[in-house]
Structure formats: structure tokens, C-alpha cells
């Protein structure tokens, strides 16, 4: 999850240059479950995509058998949002895949 370590620097830089713009929405990434290590097993994005969208993967997701993956991802997203909010006061969103179960409440 290397993206997590560069986020604070990026957010600080963004807040300095974009502060006066109230209509900016910070997109905190997209489809982390596929593009980042640590959520769905696989050595790279292609392997994770193949695992996620093969017949067994689709059924597993539909039956809720990947809830641990999404719980872990939501913990990560919560940390990301806190990091962003520490510097950026505008709107924040995450471009989730339709299969990802993002919990914005926690």
C-alpha cells in the first residue's frame, strides 16, 4: 500500500495551491481493491483482475465471501480520508468499482 505514504505530501501541496477553490472535489483514488497490493491476492493488477472476475470470483463476491477484503479496504480508506481532511477542506470522494463495498459511515 505504498500510495498511502505519499498521500500526506500530496495533500499538503494541494491545499496550498487549491485552497481558494470551493468547487474542487478530491478524488481519493479508484478501485484500490484491484490496483493496490494487500486487498485481493495477486502479484500484480492483472492477476487480481483475473481472480476477481473469473466465475468463482464473481460468485464469491456476490455471496459476500470477500467481506474481509472490503473491511480491510474500508479501514484503509478511513485513514486516507483522515489524511486528506487534515489539509483539504473541500469535498472528497472515492471512485469505487461496482463490486467494492465502500462504507462511508465508518
Task: Outline the structure in words.
The chain is mainly alpha-helical. The chain has one domain (3-95). 53% of the residues lie in helices and 10% in strands. It is built from five helices and two strands. It has helices spanning 3-18, 32-35, 45-53, 55-62, 67-85; strands at residues 25-30, 91-95. The chain has a two-stranded parallel ribbon. α3 packs across α4. The longest helix is centred in the C-terminal third of the chain and has 19 residues, at 67-85. The protein starts with a helix and ends in an 11-residue tail after the last strand. The mean pLDDT is 83.
Short description:
With 106 residues, the chain is mainly alpha-helical. The protein contains 5 helices and 2 strands; from the N terminus they run αβααααβ. The chain has one domain (3-95).
State the oligomer: single chain
- Give the H and E element order: HEHHHHE
Strand order of the largest sheet: 1-2
Radius of gyration: 15 Å
Mean pLDDT: 83
The coarse overall form would be elongated
The secondary structure category is mainly alpha
Number of domains: 1
Helix content: 40-55%
Topology:
Blueprint lengths: L2 H16 L6 E6 L1 H4 L9 H9 L1 H8 L4 H19 L5 E5 L11
Parallel strand pairs: 1-2
Amino acid at each position: 500500500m505504498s500510495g498511502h505514504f505519499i498521500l500526506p505530501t500530496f495533500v499538503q501541496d494541494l491545499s496550498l495551491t487549491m485552497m481558494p477553490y470551493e468547487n474542487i472535489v478530491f478524488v481519493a483514488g479508484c478501485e484500490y481493491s484491484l490496483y493496490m497490493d494487500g486487498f485481493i491476492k495477486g502479484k500484480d493488477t492483472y492477476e487480481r483482475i483475473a481472480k476477481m472476475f473469473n466465475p468463482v470470483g464473481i460468485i464469491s463476491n456476490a455471496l459476500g465471501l470477500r467481506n474481509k477484503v472490503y473491511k480491510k479496504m474500508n479501514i484503509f480508506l478511513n485513514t486516507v480520508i483522515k489524511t486528506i481532511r487534515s489539509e483539504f477542506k473541500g469535498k472528497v470522494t472515492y471512485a469505487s468499482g461496482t463490486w467494492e463495498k465502500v462504507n462511508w459511515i465508518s
